[in-house]
Amino acid sequence: MRGFKTLLWLEHRRSWVWAVSLFASLAFWAWGIKQVLVLDIASRAGIRSGLLGIAAAIGLLVLAIMIGRFRGETRNGQYQVMLLSPPSGYSHILARFVYAATVAAIYYVTIAFLYWWIAELAGIHFDAVTLIELILGLPLYGLALIAFPLMAWVLLLMVVVSSYRLSGSGWIPGTIMVFGSGVAFGELGEAISRIAYSLPGWRIFRHAPGALIERFGPLDPEVSTELSQVMYQGVPIEPVLVMLAVTALMLFLAGRIWQEVEA
Amino acid sequence: MTQAFLIVLKILLTALVAFWAYRLWIRTASWTSRGVGMFLSALLIWQIIAERFGTI
Hints:
Chain A is an all-alpha fold. Helices cover 81% and strands 0% of the residues of chain A.
């Protein structure tokens, strides 16, 4: 446990600049949101939401780069500290992932807070349940579905490439990993869509239409019917469960490769 | 003509991925890396031979 804490501290020492930059970028996006002054309320809220969507996508990219910085660290000698330390490869991988996952969680929960702010600016007042769903539920759902698997995949990619480094360049394992994973995730996506809604869906934002009606008046009957259907069905739980399992598998494989190469 | 071209392309791509798979097998000390490499190479070859590339 103490070794793991030390690894987390090392991880923080290596990556804090990335983490702080990521958090600081949110101030820029918040400023950008205030600059949108289109008269139509719906358009304004739409543009502001779009800006936050861009922030979320850029954050994903930055997190992937942050967690996958193996080569630069090897050149700078920082990686030697990790390689020569007693904790197992699994601990190294887990520490790196836990640090990045924590940064990601803070970043996306803050973005969710900004969504709440946008709604408030548009005069939409959500109830407590919807707020919790927006600020905690939605970011965690997105993290489990997209960010965690992506970060685990980047870790696995870098560890696989590193395991070939002594014997030559890493472009062949890198190419196979990128294209092969594309095929694998495509097939996985199809399998997930087949099993989706086998379990009851998570009825997130079921109270949200009330706040919209309160703000904008009765909705168009067609939109209202579609919205009630979506709200009743909820979002599927299976993709999250599958992607969390895939994340755990990729982390296990990365840790195992680290162990084997180090041994 | 197009069909023949596709067959030749499939053969060449399969050979390339198979060669890469061979390199992935011999150039590491890690059995897990080999396993991951073989699995992904097999997926790619399966796609080349049986699936998407033939239907473009």
